[in-house]
Amino acid sequence: MGEDSKVKESGKAQKRKRIGYSKGHKGAKKPKVLQGSGKKVKVDGRMKKLYRKRAREYNSDDDDDGNDNAFEDKAEEVSIKEKMNDERDADELDSENDEEKRHFVDDDEEEEGEIQSGVTKFVEGVRAFKLAFKKIMKRNISDDSLGPVLSGHQKLVAEKLAEEEADRKVKGEAKKEKQLVKEKGHLIPESFFDAHEKFLIGVARKGVVKLFNAVNKAQLAQKGLNPSRTKDAKELSKKRKESFFSELGRKPFSHSTSSKSGTEKDEDGPAWAPLRDNYMLTNSKLKNWDKQQHDAIAADNGRAVIESSDDDE
Amino acid sequence: MARFRDKKKKGFVKPVVKKNLKNVDHITGDKVPKSFVFARGKLPAVLRQLQMDLRKLMLPFTALKLKEKKRNSLKDFLNVAGPMGVTHFMILSKTTTGPYLRVARTPQGPTLTFKVKDYTLAVDVARSQLRPRCPQDLFKNPPLIVLSGFGTGEQHLKLATIMFQNIFPSIDINTVKLSSCQRIVLLNYDKETKLIDFRHYSIRLEPVGVTRRLRKFVQNHQVPDLRNLQDVSDFVTKAGYGSESEGDEDAATVTLSNDMGRVNRASTKSAVKLQELGPRMTLHLIKIEEGLCTGGVIFSEHGDGDKKKPESKEGGTAGNAAGNEDDEGITGEGEESETDDYEDANGDDNEMSEDE
C-alpha cells in the first residue's frame, strides 16, 4: 500500500516517486531534495531521509515488491477483503497523517485520509472488535459445571483442587499423628469399674481398715490415763508400744528409736535403718543401702503397708 | 532521754521466729517432707493437667502454684528447695516414647525414674463416675499411703518403698485423728508385669446397720417426706433397698475410737468406702540414680545397673558429702523467684503429730 501513498509536494506523479524509492539511496535522493527545497524553505536532508525511511518501514511488506508490482498490489489489495488488512490500513493512514510535512493520500480511501484520522481509527477498531467478538460467540462450548469461562482451565483447576485435597489430607494426618504422640499413654476410663480397679480398691481398703483398727486399739488403751502426770505418762508409753505390737502380732523392737509399727512377716534383722523415716532425711548417705539385704521391709510409723503377702486375691 | 527510750523499746522487740521451724513437726521435731512437682521440658496440655493433679495429690505440703520458666534449671529448683525445706521433687518430662516421672530426694538423691505407661487424669476419673465426691477439706490433710506387693526382696523395690513412704508425713497411731485421714494413695506392684499401679482414693466412713434413709436424715438435717407412710415408725422400720456393696462390708468395717462427723460415732461399726479421685498412673520403674538426676546408676531396667555399681558407689559418697554441705549451706538466694505461692499448711497438721 505504500506505493499508493504519494508525495504531493512538488506535484510529481506517482511513478516518479516510486522510481526514487526503488533506486537506491544515493543517486536519486539529491535531486529530489532539490526539487522539494523549492517549496519548503528549509527541509533538512537528513530529516527527509529519516521520514522516508520511516514511511518505508511502515510499508515494508509492500516495498520490497518494487514499483513493477504496484498495480498488481493494488488489485490484490482491492480483492482481498480481509479484516485484518483493513485494520492495518487504518493504522497506516494514521501514521502517515502524523507526518505533517507531507500529505499522504491513500488511493483507495482518499476521503477518509482527508477526514480526521482519529475518528477513522475508532471506527475501524470497533469493527475489528465486533468481528472478534462475533468469532468468540460463534464458538461451540460444551456446558460444564465449571462454566464457559473456566473451560480452558478446566483440567488445571480440577488438578489443583485435587492437589489441595491431598495436601490437606496429608497435613491432617500429620497433625493427628502429632496429637497422638502428645497424648501417648493418656487413657480415658471406659467403664465405671473393671476387675482390676476393684481389686486395687480392695487392697487399698484393706490397708485403711488395718490402720483404722490399729489406731482404734491404740487410742482406746490410753483413754483412761492422764498424760500430764508423769506416772501415767510412763505407763502410757509402755502400754502404747505393747498394745500396738501385740495387736500386730509381733514383739517390740529392742531398737529404741524404732517404735514404729510393722505389718511384716519375713523379718530376720532387727536393724532396718534404711527404712527409718529419718534415714535419708538426716544422714542421707546411701553408702550401704544395698548392704543390708536382710532388712525387713516393713511399714513404719503407723502407715499401713501391705506387703506382697496379699496373694489371696 | 532518747537513749533511755531506745533501751526501753528494745525490751519489746519480738524475738525473730526462725523460719526453719516451719519445716519441722512441732511436737516430734521430725522433718515434714515437702515436695515440688514440676516439669522439665515442654509438656503438652494433657500432661500439664496431670502435673496439676499430682500437685493436688501432694497437698498440703507442696507448691500448688509453682511457676516454672523455660530457663529454670534443676539447680534453680534445688536452690529454692533448701530454704523452703522441700525434700522431694516429682519431675514430669516427655519424650517421643512417652511421659516420664522422676521422683527424687533433694538435695542429693536418689532419683527414681519411672516410665508412665498410661495415665488417667482426675477429670477423666470424675467424668466416669456417677457422683464424683469432693468435700471441702479433702486436700487439707496429707494422704495415707499404702504400698502393696513391694516386698519381693529386690533392692530397687526396697528403695522405692522408702522413697514413697517418706514422701508423705508420717502419722502416729496414738494421736492421729481419723477425721484427718481422708485420702489414700495406693501403689500396687505387680510382680509379673513389673508395673506399679498408682491410684488415689478418698476415704469415706458409713455406719453399718443403719438404713440409708436414716443416715441421710441425720446427715442432711432436712425434713423427710412422710406422705406415703402410715405412721412415723414406718420411717424407721421400713427397710430400704440394700446397697450393692452390702456383701463385702463385713470385711471392711472398723470400730471407731472417736467420733467422726455426725454420723460415725465412737464405738459403732462403720464401713470403709473408697472412691477414686484420680489421677491414675501405671508406672514402670526403669532406673535409679544415686544423685539428683545425676550420678551412678544403682538400678536399671535394662540390666546395666549391676556393672556400674562399684564405681558409682564411690562417686555417690563423694556426692553425698558435698550434698551434706549443701544442706546447711544453701542460703535463700532464689527464695523470691518461683515459689511465691508455696503452700505451707503447717497450721493444719497439728493433729498429724508423732511422739517419741
Automatic annotation (TrEMBL), chain A:
<feature type="region of interest" description="Disordered">
    <location>
        <begin position="222"/>
        <end position="275"/>
    </location>
</feature>
<protein>
    <recommendedName>
        <fullName>RRP15-like protein</fullName>
    </recommendedName>
</protein>
<feature type="compositionally biased region" description="Basic and acidic residues">
    <location>
        <begin position="1"/>
        <end position="12"/>
    </location>
</feature>
<dbReference type="InterPro" id="IPR012459">
    <property type="entry name" value="Rrp15"/>
</dbReference>
<feature type="region of interest" description="Disordered">
    <location>
        <begin position="1"/>
        <end position="117"/>
    </location>
</feature>
<feature type="compositionally biased region" description="Acidic residues">
    <location>
        <begin position="88"/>
        <end position="98"/>
    </location>
</feature>
<dbReference type="GO" id="GO:0000460">
    <property type="term" value="P:maturation of 5.8S rRNA"/>
</dbReference>
<feature type="compositionally biased region" description="Basic residues">
    <location>
        <begin position="13"/>
        <end position="32"/>
    </location>
</feature>
<comment type="similarity">
    <text>Belongs to the RRP15 family.</text>
</comment>
<dbReference type="GO" id="GO:0030687">
    <property type="term" value="C:preribosome, large subunit precursor"/>
</dbReference>
<dbReference type="GO" id="GO:0000470">
    <property type="term" value="P:maturation of LSU-rRNA"/>
</dbReference>
<feature type="compositionally biased region" description="Basic and acidic residues">
    <location>
        <begin position="71"/>
        <end position="87"/>
    </location>
</feature>
<feature type="compositionally biased region" description="Basic and acidic residues">
    <location>
        <begin position="229"/>
        <end position="250"/>
    </location>
</feature>
<dbReference type="Pfam" id="PF07890">
    <property type="entry name" value="Rrp15p"/>
</dbReference>
TrEMBL record, chain B:
<dbReference type="GO" id="GO:0006364">
    <property type="term" value="P:rRNA processing"/>
</dbReference>
<dbReference type="GO" id="GO:0000027">
    <property type="term" value="P:ribosomal large subunit assembly"/>
</dbReference>
<feature type="region of interest" description="Disordered">
    <location>
        <begin position="301"/>
        <end position="356"/>
    </location>
</feature>
<dbReference type="InterPro" id="IPR045112">
    <property type="entry name" value="PPAN-like"/>
</dbReference>
<feature type="compositionally biased region" description="Acidic residues">
    <location>
        <begin position="324"/>
        <end position="356"/>
    </location>
</feature>
<dbReference type="Pfam" id="PF04427">
    <property type="entry name" value="Brix"/>
</dbReference>
<feature type="compositionally biased region" description="Basic and acidic residues">
    <location>
        <begin position="301"/>
        <end position="314"/>
    </location>
</feature>
<feature type="domain" description="Brix">
    <location>
        <begin position="33"/>
        <end position="294"/>
    </location>
</feature>
<dbReference type="GO" id="GO:0030687">
    <property type="term" value="C:preribosome, large subunit precursor"/>
</dbReference>
<protein>
    <recommendedName>
        <fullName>Brix domain-containing protein</fullName>
    </recommendedName>
</protein>
<dbReference type="InterPro" id="IPR007109">
    <property type="entry name" value="Brix"/>
</dbReference>
<dbReference type="GO" id="GO:0019843">
    <property type="term" value="F:rRNA binding"/>
</dbReference>
